Amino acid sequence: MQWRRHIAGLAFSFVFVVSYFTNKFVLSVLKFTYPTLFQGWQTFIGAILLLLSGKLGWVEMSRITRSAALSWLPGSLLFVGNIYAGSRSLSRINSSHVVSYIILKVIHREKAQWLKFISLCLMLLSAINLPLFDPQFDYSGYLWAVGHLFCVGAYRVFQVHYKPSNLSDLEQQCINYLFSVLLLAIAAHPTGDLTGALEFPSLQSSTFHCGCCASALLGFLLLLATVKLKSGFSFEHFGVWIFLSKITAMSLSPFIFHMDFNIPALICVVVSHVAEALLVYSERESL
Question: What is the pTM of this model?
Answer without folding.
Answer: 0.79
